[in-house]
Structures are given as C-alpha cells and as structure tokens.
Write a sequence for this structure.
C-alpha cells in the first residue's frame, strides 16, 4: 500500500505542468540583479552586475551594503515586485549556483536594459550568453556620459588606487605594461609586481569570445591605456575578472 501511494505521488508530480516563464509572478526582489519567482526559483539577470548588499566574509554572507546597492534594489523593486514577468533564456539556462539565468521583461520592457541604462548596473557579459551584449554596451556608455545613477558618483580611478576599493564596482584606468599566460588564464599586468599591483584576469573558458572579435588578449592590449568596469577583488593584489571583450575599452589619451 505504501509503495502504491509513493508511486502515485511521483506520478502526479511528474505530470504537473512546468513553470510558465512567459507569464510568471515575481514573489520577491533579492537585490539589484536577482529576483525570486512565485515557483520558488531564483533568477539572476544576464549581462549585468549590481553592487552587493551582502558580501562574503569567512564563509558567511554578511549584510554590508556597497555604494549604490540599495538604490539598485529599490529600482528593481519598482520595476518588477509583485508583477507578472516574462523570463527569456540564452544559451545557458542556469549558473553554478542553480539560479536561472534570464532576461526579464515586464510590460514589454527589458529590465536588464533599464538597470544598466539608468546607471544601477554595470556590464557583466559572460559567453555564451551574449544575446543583448551589444545593446548593453551602448546603454552603459550612455549612462556614463549622462552620469546616471552610480556614474554620477563613481569617478574613473587609477589602477594605482584600485586596492582602496576591494569588493566594490569601479571603473579602473591604466596602461597594460605586459601580459602573461598561465595554464588557466591570461593576465594583463598594470604594474611591475604582479603580486601586489592591479591585474585583469581573463580565464581560458572565455578567451574564444575575444578571438571572435579578432582580439588576441595576450598581445592586443600590451602598451595600451584601457578602462575596465567591474568588481574589484583581491587575490595577488587587486584584480578584475573580465569575461568578454565588451568589458575592456581601449582609451586614447594619457594614463
């Protein structure tokens, strides 16, 4: 009898309709770039990154709002909280944490675009999910020029001062002195001491996205002044992990 009941439970669960991502309610807004759907699943917006509300310390996430993180969440709340949205997927449907990766539409408006357009997010394009990458690049440039959102407060900083902004999203400028390729990635070095100076890291799994744009990152950026928008982390000194050529802009002018 018990086996029969278990069989019936499994049968009915397997026959239950899959979530309709073309029209599903947003139950909660976690932060600027993550929402919870009415089916319990989390959606991480593709192509953008917003300042963190909680940062990881000693294996735990601690409430420590980064500059403009709460503003980004509030804007996301106004856009989608309690509303029915359409979630559109790209090549990869989930990330390593089991979250859905999606483009979120509400009333025909792409929320990912609205966040970056209004300066609440920065570009974070990870191949192969690049469907709207070109649009996001244009919107970020526009937001920077018009000093919208975080761009009103975030000045471009020198790579020499990058260590002062660990775990924060910044736009960093500097000259690539040299590059180095290891087994796992390519490093763009901005100082003579790679253990302490600012570095850009490009992992092997995204290098093809550079080649597709006829860019060999090992040679192309050497000697050039560039600007990178992203989250500064600390490993061997401050670093930004870059996932696509869209995130590195070659600049004419002085360092």
């Amino acid at each position: 009898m018990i086996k029969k009941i278990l069989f019936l439970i499994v049968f009915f669960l397997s026959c239950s309709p899959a979530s309709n991502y073309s029209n599903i309610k947003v139950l909660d807004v976690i932060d600027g770039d993550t929402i919870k759907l009415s089916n319990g699943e989390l959606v991480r917006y593709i192509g953008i990154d917003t300042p963190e509300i909680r940062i990881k310390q000693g294996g735990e996430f601690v409430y420590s709002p980064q500059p403009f993180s709460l503003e980004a969440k509030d804007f996301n709340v106004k856009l989608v909280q309690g509303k029915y949205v359409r979630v559109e997927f790209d090549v990869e449907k989930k990330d390593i944490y089991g979250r859905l990766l999606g483009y979120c539409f509400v009333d025909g408006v792409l929320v990912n675009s609205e966040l970056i357009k209004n300066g609440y997010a920065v570009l974070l394009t990870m191949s192969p999910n690049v469907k709207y990458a070109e649009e996001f690049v244009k919107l970020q440039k526009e937001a920077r020029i018009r000093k919208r959102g975080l761009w009103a407060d975030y000045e471009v900083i020198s790579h020499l001062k990058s260590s002062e902004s660990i775990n924060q999203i910044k736009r960093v400028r500097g000259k690539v002195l040299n590059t180095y390729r290891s087994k796992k990635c390519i490093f763009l070095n901005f100082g003579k001491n790679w253990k302490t100076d600012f570095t850009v890291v490009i992992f092997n799994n995204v290098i093809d996205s550079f080649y597709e744009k006829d860019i060999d990152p090992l040679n192309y950026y050497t000697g050039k002044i560039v600007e990178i928008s992203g989250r500064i982390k600390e490993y061997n000194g401050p670093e930004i992990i870059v996932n696509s050529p869209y995130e590195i802009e070659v600049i004419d002018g002085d360092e």
